[in-house]
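Tokens for chain A. Residues wanted.
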């Protein structure tokens, strides 16, 4: 999307919201609008990546805990650890399990697979955090089969080591919450846990450093769950686009509102002749002839 009328965009999005971009990045109104579009693209890419992580984590955890507590692939294992779960986690389960269209017309109680598929991502940090240390070395290496701590599985039974090994879950969950609430992704709050301390971001450079940290955490997390699947994620269109969006050239394109091509299309001959200029201009272009058409996006 490229707004055609700045005043209309300001009116719809609101000046205070745009002003947060202008002040943080020290840019003009036009550049702030471009960065707003940039944040939208970041949100779409991160949403796709985090959804894959959530599904992979959920499936690994559900299968492992079902095997441990029920000796089968799908079991109501959360009932076995209910006394350790926080009230909000229990509520998530009960909301899925007992919610029906009305008191007179109750639906059948869903099975374990459906229940765990419908709880939010925040449920899983709560579950992992209360895994009994006596059995952690039997459970967590199966949820995270490629985690570095598996070199000595008994380290999972040490509270500080377990917390340190799972710290990425809490940061990813916090980021996902901001994403779900449509907050500006670049505005990172400080992290002050018992494991790590990271100051809040205050400018573009610090935001990019935090994004780099976040992607490193994501990579470690996905790799710990499934290395082959993580390799596929690294080659995905979402990850490739993120790499560009978080580059100096990517940010510059959006600041200049050059993220959308002009309506005019180039012929293949014009495209070949202007390729060097197109790359320097850092703007997508349409290429079209009588038989086919396409979009070229310089990187």
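Reply:
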């Amino acid at each position: 999307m490229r707004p055609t009328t700045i005043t209309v965009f300001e009116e719809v999005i609101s000046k205070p919201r745009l002003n947060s971009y202008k002040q943080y990045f020290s840019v003009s109104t036009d550049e702030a609008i471009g960065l707003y579009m940039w944040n939208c693209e970041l949100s779409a890419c991160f949403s796709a990546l985090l959804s894959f992580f959530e599904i992979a984590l959920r499936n690994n955890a559900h299968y492992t805990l079902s095997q441990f507590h029920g000796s089968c692939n799908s079991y109501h294992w959360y009932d076995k650890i209910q006394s350790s779960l926080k009230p909000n986690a229990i509520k998530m389960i009960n909301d899925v399990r007992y919610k029906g269209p009305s008191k007179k017309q109750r639906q059948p109680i869903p099975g374990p697979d459906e229940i765990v598929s419908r709880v939010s991502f925040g449920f899983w940090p709560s579950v992992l955090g209360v895994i009994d240390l006596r059995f952690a070395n039997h459970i967590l290496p199966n949820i995270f089969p490629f985690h570095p701590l598996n070199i000595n599985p008994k380290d999972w039974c040490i509270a500080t080591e377990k917390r340190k090994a799972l710290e990425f879950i809490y940061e990813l969950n916090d980021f996902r919450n901001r994403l779900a609430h449509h907050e500006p992704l670049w505005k990172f709050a400080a992290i002050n846990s018992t494991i790590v301390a990271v100051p809040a971001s205050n400018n573009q450079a610090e935001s990019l450093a935090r994004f780099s940290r976040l992607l490193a955490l994501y990579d470690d997390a996905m790799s710990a769950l499934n290395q082959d699947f993580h390799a596929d994620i690294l080659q995905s269109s979402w990850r490739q686009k993120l790499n560009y969006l978080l580059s100096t050239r990517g940010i510059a394109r959006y600041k200049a509102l050059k993220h959308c091509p002009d309506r005019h299309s180039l012929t293949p001959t014009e495209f070949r002749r202007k390729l060097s200029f197109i790359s320097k201009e850092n703007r997508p272009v349409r290429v079209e002839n009588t038989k086919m058409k396409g979009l070229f996006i310089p990187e």
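Residues 265-296 form one domain. The chain has a mean pLDDT of 94.
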